[in-house]
Here is the input.
Amino acid sequence: MATGKTASAFFDTGGKKISRQVVLPFRKSLEISIKSIKVRFFRSMITVVGLILAVAFLGFVLAGAEVATGLLHSGDPQLRNVLVKAGYDLPAEPPVDADGRALPESVGTGAKERWIVILSLLVCTVGIVNAQLMAVTERFREIGTMKCLGALDSFVLRLFLLEAGMQGFVGALIGAVFGAVAALLAGLARFGLAALVWLPVGGLAISVGAAIVVGFILSLAGVVYPAVVAARMRPIEAMRVQE
Here is the structure.
């Protein structure tokens, strides 16, 4: 175990200030977080599955918009008509400027889809907060023991953030990839091979990356309050809880 310096201190009976510190390096904090996830694997999976579903829906919507945008940019009037018949809100003819040149177009998400995505992400965040609060309740004695051994509030906070970060990244990655693949399959079913031929790979990658970032941020945001509750817990209160 590595040692280092901190601002923690206590006073002996003579009033002399004695500084002390026993801190764990970041690598050890990471090991503890991974072990905690393994011990509570099924409870962690509940949180991760909820995040996967929410991010998958977000990835599906974003990737589907990229598929439609690729077809629109193909310049094929027939594909444009197919998009209009599929329900996309597009003018019958592409817009042009004063010189008769075609203006760039893109297919965005509809207001209904945006609200559904927002609501699903909010529900996911609430589920993460609830699951993490339950995790804090289950770990009262563990937290109290760490604090009695000298763990600082920042160390407890770091553990919860690391656990949430790892779960959030894995869940968001799986969800974003799953949603993008589902959108591509849906595009193939609706538009045929043209959905892949005109697919903007760069835009698809940005959509997948955006979904991963959103999922990761939501996971961290959902654990902030439970982590602060755990970090501020007094050792005597945590140790008093009956198992």
Notes: Residues 46-92+109-240 form one domain.
